[in-house]
Design goal:
By secondary structure, this protein is of the alpha/beta class. 39% of the residues lie in helices and 17% in strands. The protein is built from 14 helices and 16 strands. Strands 12-11-10-9-8-7-4-13-14-15-16 form an eleven-stranded mixed beta sheet. A three-stranded antiparallel beta sheet has the order 1-2-3, sandwiched between helices. Strand 1 and strand 2 form a beta hairpin. The relative contact order is 0.11.
């Protein structure tokens, strides 16, 4: 299978079987479109040019870079657990309208995870990690910094227990930054492999949805703290994560605002909500795609001027990225990765937390529901309905289990809106990859 697309008068052919991306001319693109069944007028292409195109195609086929047979083997799935998301606090000091976690409470009581439960989760992870040497823990909420003492105690305990068994931990925290101070930043810089800071962009955009408990916008309260964090973070990993809604379909302006604010590692995610005034709907897709186009242009302009930044959705590595079997396997939620709520209950991931249908056990029970785990273990790209003819399948892996389930009632039925945005972002990312490579030649 090949995917032929044009972007800003540049023409590309992407071969799904090999992962090869080819930049080409319009005649070759049109010729191959016609071979793929599209109605294309080829009358302006000379016979000599067609022979040249056919020769080039045959050469690429022989090299395994075009029309290469796609992998069809189901990936082996490990039973070793590699990561946990610890819901260290089911409470929050913000009341963001679009929050999938019910403003931190997860449709239940507001509570914090005890040190006892956190340590039991660490024991559970170590005991079920098999031969894995590197384990991961994400401190999540709600707002994790509302339970900072337990985070610190958990980190100390995890490092000590891992050392006894020849393992080590990588820690991540996701925070709204409201409680950040110099002491906490020092702790993060010493212990956290990565830190995710929530900031939606321009003040008016951020304040419209990310409000404090008294109903005021939180932008002014956090922007300085995030800037201080980034200044002190040095070369350690972090990224600023924003969410865009139907209220800011010009989200590209928010990404550029964040870049201009000194944040060079940025993610901007489409909202997942059923609130009618914020929900992204099909009629918004043209505006969203135009936003990605504008962002792609600005990204390349800044890169050429030596002012580049890292935008998560424009990162793509077709040469040395994750191995194909991992792309086929998808994210590992519900099999190699789980979330743990404050009472110790285990769920496939944070977006299933609190749903009794997806409770898989408890860190105190020290076991996982085998039938539920099998559903997630057996799910992969090849079980995703409708993915077989999509050029993006080996990059997106069939979408997010939680989004698929919440919108379609089945983890194996991709959410169409996400698919459309993903395909657009991938085309932008491929264009950027090609242009960067050209700039180096």
């Amino acid at each position: 299978m090949i995917h032929i697309f044009s972007y800003r008068d540049n023409h590309y052919i992407y071969d799904t079987g090999s992962g090869a991306l080819h930049m080409t001319d319009r005649e070759t693109a049109d010729y191959l479109r016609s071979k793929e069944g599209e109605e294309v007028d080829l009358s302006a292409i000379s016979p000599e040019k067609i022979r040249e195109i056919e020769s080039d195609v045959e050469s690429l086929v022989r090299e395994g870079l075009l029309y290469r047979e796609e992998v069809t083997t189901y990936p082996p799935k490990s039973t070793e657990i590699k990561a946990l998301c610890l819901h260290i606090c089911h409470d929050c000091n913000l009341r963001c309208r679009y929050c999938f976690a019910d403003e931190g409470a997860y449709h239940s009581v507001r509570e914090k995870m005890s040190a006892e439960t956190a340590k039991a989760a660490i024991d559970f992870l170590i005991e079920n990690s098999g031969n894995r040497k590197v384990l991961e823990v994400d401190f999540f909420g709600g707002e994790p910094l509302m339970n900072l003492d337990v985070i610190k105690e958990t980190v100390r305990y995890a490092k000590a227990e891992a050392a006894k068994r020849g393992k080590r931990f990588l820690f991540t925290t996701t925070t709204n930054a409201l409680l950040l101070d110099e002491e906490t930043i020092r702790f993060f810089n010493e212990e956290m492999e990565n830190v995710v800071l929530s900031l939606d962009g321009r003040k008016e955009v951020h304040d419209a949805v990310r409000k404090t408990v008294n109903g005021k916008g939180s932008f002014d309260a956090v922007i300085g703290k995030v800037k201080q964090f980034v200044q002190l973070r040095g070369d350690k990993h972090f990224y600023v994560r924003g969410t865009f809604t139907a209220k800011n379909l010009d989200f590209d302006r928010d990404v550029l605002f964040l870049a201009d604010s000194g944040f060079d590692s940025i993610s901007m995610e489409p909202v997942v909500t059923d609130l009618s005034d914020l929900q992204i709907r099909e009629e918004h897709l043209p505006a969203i795609k135009e936003g990605y186009d504008r962002l792609c242009d600005a990204y390349l302009e800044r890169y050429a001027a030596g002012k580049g930044f890292n935008f998560f959705h424009f990162n793509i590595d077709l040469e040395g990225g994750p191995c194909l079997s991992k792309r086929v396997s998808a994210c590992g939620a519900g099999n190699e990765y789980f979330s743990v709520t404050p009472n110790g209950d285990i769920y496939p991931c944070h977006q299933f937390a609190g749903d009794p249908a997806f409770r898989m056990g408890s860190v105190f029970e020290k076991k996982i529901d085998g039938s539920l785990r099998a559903q997630f273990r057996d799910s992969c790209l090849f079980t995703r309905k409708g993915c077989e003819h999509c050029f993006a399948k080996f990059i997106c892996s069939g979408g997010c289990n939680a989004n698929n389930y919440h919108y379609n009632g089945d983890i194996n039925v991709p959410y169409a809106m996400t698919c459309e945005m993903m395909k657009k972002r991938i085309e932008c990312a491929m264009h950027i990859l090609a242009q960067k490579k050209l700039a180096k030649e």
